[in-house]
Write a structure and sequence with these properties.
alpha+beta, Arc Repressor Mutant, subunit A, three-stranded antiparallel β-sheet, 4 helices, globular
Length: 108
């Protein structure tokens, strides 16, 4: 399958969505996104961790150290209240934008 570049800001939205249900560590976030997208979205560590750090700086996620399923030390990320509000706003904007693009493409 060819590599798909995500539009600017989309990775942030996807990470916030993956964290909406429960705190997760980085590898689990990338696996969850891969599964949720039927194996289309494969987020590389070189993109994922800078995005997580950016989200943490913005106050949309917070992190704590914990122990992973395989008994390793891992940083767990969870949505903050601000992050949940951001997810709702960004998801709404995404849905409006993709509906408009689909409408334009459908009129060709």
């Amino acid at each position: 399958m060819p590599h798909i570049d995500l539009p600017q800001g989309t990775l942030d939205l996807l990470i916030l969505r993956a964290l909406a249900l429960a705190p997760q560590h980085g590898w689990a976030i990338s696996e969850r996104l891969r599964q949720m997208s039927s194996d289309v979205l494969r987020i590389q560590q070189g993109s994922l961790y800078p995005a997580l750090h950016r989200l943490e700086r913005r106050g949309w996620v917070k992190a704590r150290w914990g122990t992973s399923e395989n008994n390793r030390r891992a940083k767990y990320y969870q949505l903050t209240r601000r992050g949940r509000r951001r997810l709702e706003a960004d998801q709404d904007a995404w849905e409006k934008m993709t509906a408009a693009v689909a409408q334009v493409l459908g009129t060709a």
